Amino acid sequence: MMPELNTRIDQLVQNHKILVFMKGSKLMPQCGFSNTAVQVFNSLGVPFDTVDVLADPEIRQGIKEYSNWPTIPQIYINGEFIGGSDVLIELYQQGELQQLVEVALAS
Hints:
The protein is α+β, with helices and mostly antiparallel strands.
């Protein structure tokens, strides 16, 4: 990955408490998995930001290399890679996601 792209992704991840790299936007998700991530955060009633990977092919490929995770969406909380929508659902069902979000928003 080009150093400039790595820096760009790094800044996005560090500048947002909760960030979802997804297909589409939180108002118009473009795939079921991205929609699932949006619905989970909406159900928690917390602010979160999104990056539409369909609008930026460099980010779409670069985020996969950045995280070493092959699929979209990718969720970051407090600068830490959490995983995809499957991991997000699991954390939500176990009650751990709420705690991660509370800590991130309090910091």
